[in-house]
Amino acid sequence: MSHRQKHPARHWAASALLAASWGVWSLAQAQTSVTIDCSPNSLAQLNTGQPSTSNAQVDSRWRFQYLSAYAGSDPANWRSFGDATIVTSRVSSWTSTPAASSTAQWIAANAWGGQPYVDGANFGNIDALFQVQFNIDPAVSLGSFAPSMTYSADNSVVDIFINGKSQLARGLGTWGLPQAGSTNQFNYNGFGTNRWLTIASMASPDWQAGANTMTVYVKSGNPYMGFAAAISGSNACLPNDAPAATPAVSGQPDVGQTLTGTYGYADTESDPEDSSATGTRYQWVRSDNASLTQAAQGTVMQSGNTLGAAGTVTYTTQAADDKAYLYYCVTPVAVRGTLVGPEVCSAAFGPVKTTTTPPQPATPQAVPVLGIWALLGMSGLVAGWGLARSRKRVRA
User: Where is the signal peptide (predicted)?
Assistant: First the structure.
């Protein structure tokens, strides 16, 4: 059972008082989005109960809305969020702020943590949603982003949504929320002494560089409802490694030949490569130096965007490349995290040489060949000529 008895008259009075102030609540203040980077106390900016500069009664970061109980946790059922009010007259059974923070305060629909009595058929139970918006700096490693959250709720936290994605549905065990799946979610004592709980690591594939939302889903029985949290974690702000490239050149080192440049792409956090027309860049470079490490150390003959590691870039050698070394230099670019990696050049290719055509030997003249009948005829003529000369000598 809950920490309070159910009094219909009290519920009606609380509901009427809340209705009177609801018009003010619905005119939401402009919440400010902070950027989580590696500066000190970066995550503490997301603690609940930090007053807005324009209205000290409302939270500067967190927003709130409620649904009738059993409305379903699908974000498609959610309405627009309004202000989350800082609770200044909390019920005595609510514990103070967690030891991890002196600034985290309770937030709710109003200053006393009262709950609207909107669902009489279900004893006034409601689903309360508390949401904070913030940015993650591109230098932060998403693969390592895992802040911790120490929290308390009246009555229970049953799911947490990251950018509209249920972490319960993700199969992450809702990060160890003991109330999820229990039969007394609307009466769970998540608010009393020593009831602060800690999610040590909120790692999720749903974090993204830039804008993020985290929505805490609370099940609450009447007549009080609220949530408080302190967020921290030294492991939540590890730097993001830059992407890396490993270029290579293939082909024949001769003038007039077409060479092919290729490279491998790698990123520690698995941040994908930017294969667009403004992504990873290449340069074909010529140099007399056999140990060039940067394109600026040589002469750039051709440059542009690679359009991704899956493709290739070609270069046809010229007469000016004779006796020089050629390099394929690549600057990798990722689509998130640390965007631009260091330029890397291939090993020296060459030296390029001019190929000369060796002189061809002269073609020998063909010797006429007589057939068998020609030889017989020739033999007869020679024999007749010899016989005639012999007779001429006898007469003499």
Answer: 1-30
Q: What are the angstrom distances between the C-alpha of 189 and each of 1, 145, 194, 199, 227?
A: 9, 30, 10, 17, 12
| All residues at 6 or more sequence positions from 351 whose CB lies less than 8 Å from its CB, including other chains | 253, 323, 324, 325
- The pLDDT, as a whole number, for residue 18 is 41
Q: Are 249 and 326 in contact (CB under 8 A)?
A: yes
Amino acid at 366: A
User: Two tokens at 396?
Assistant: 């003499």
Cβ atoms of 275 and 307 closer than 8 Å = yes
- Rounded distance between C-alpha atoms, residue 217 and residue 80, angstroms: 15
Half-sphere exposure of 351 (CA within 13 A, CB side): 12
What stretches in the chain show pLDDT beneath 70? Answer: 1-32, 38, 69-72, 97-102, 117-123, 172-174, 179-183, 193, 234-235, 238, 356-396
Q: What domains are there in the chain, each with its CATH number?
A: 8-237 (2.60.120), 244-345 (2.60.40)
Q: What is the per-residue pLDDT across 306-331, written as a single tens digit (0 to 9) for each?
A: 999 999 999 999 999 999 999 999 99
| Distance set, CA 364 to CA 20, 234, 266, 359, 369 (Å) | 116, 88, 63, 15, 15
CA distance 90 to 110: 10
| Distance (Å, whole) CA 245 – CA 282 | 11
Residue 289: both structure tokens together: 């130096």
Using the CB atoms, write b or e for 104-135: b if 16+ within 10 Å. bbbbbbbebbbbbbbbeeebbbbbbbbbbbbb
The answer to whether the CB of 43 falls within 8 A of the CB of 237 is yes
What pLDDT was estimated at residue 226?
A: 92
Paired with 281 in beta bridges are: 305, 331
- Predicted pLDDT of residue 142: 83
Q: Give the model's pLDDT for residue 255.
A: 96
- Evaluate if pTM is beyond 0.85: no
